[in-house]
Design a protein that fits this description.
Blueprint (H helix, E strand, L loop, with lengths): L25 H5 L5 H10 L14 H26 L7 H10 L1 H6 L32 H14 L1
Helix pairs in contact: 2-3, 3-4
InterPro entries: H2A/H2B/H3 (IPR007125), Histone-fold (IPR009072), Histone_H2A (IPR002119), Histone_H2A_C (IPR032454), Histone_H2A_CS (IPR032458)
Keywords: Acetylation, Chromosome, DNA-binding, Methylation, Nucleosome core, Nucleus
GO molecular function: DNA binding; protein heterodimerization activity; structural constituent of chromatin
Length: 156
């Protein structure tokens, strides 16, 4: 033989697999998409409190990242529904505005927030809407009354 190795280390594992020594981020350990480490760094750097605890597995930064991810997912889902209702494929600030203001809890949470280019939520007071004219027993519709009025007026 020419002295080539079989590609295995002394422990018998394949070379380069190194699963035991591979580091894993706190976000991936928790199954989150939001970066726990970045949020922790920004909390420390931003002078929001005198101390930011490093903590154990029940870390406050991890909890904050999970809450932020949940809120983002909720808003994006509702905004996506608003975009689909308007037959659009792209979420724009108008869809975010409609999603937040039409949801009771998000509207309460973000009530004082101004979304640039969001517009306003349309609202027409029910008293200003036309009443539904139902044709009952012998009742005439508004169109029939209008025709009778014009015929009566023409005959005078």
């Amino acid at each position: 033989m020419s002295g080539k190795t079989s590609g295995k280390s002394k422990s018998g594992k394949a070379a380069g697999s190194g699963d035991a020594s591979k580091s894993q981020s706190r976000s991936s350990k928790a199954g989150l998409q939001f970066p726990v480490g970045r949020i922790h760094r920004l909390l420390k750097k931003g002078n929001y409190a005198q101390r930011v605890g490093a903590g154990a597995p029940g870390e406050s930064t991890l909890y904050l990242a999970a809450v932020l991810e949940y809120l983002a997912a909720e808003i994006l889902e509702l905004a996506g529904n608003a975009a689909r209702d308007n037959k659009k494929h792209r979420i724009v600030p108008r869809h975010l505005q409609l999603a937040i203001r039409n949801d009771e809890e998000l509207g309460k949470l973000l009530g004082s927030v101004v979304i640039s280019q969001g517009g306003v939520v349309p609202h027409i007071d029910p008293s200003l809407l036309p009443t539904g004219t139902k044709k009952g027993k012998g009742g005439a519709t508004s169109q029939e009354l209008l025709v009778v009025f014009f015929l009566f007026r023409a005959s005078i």
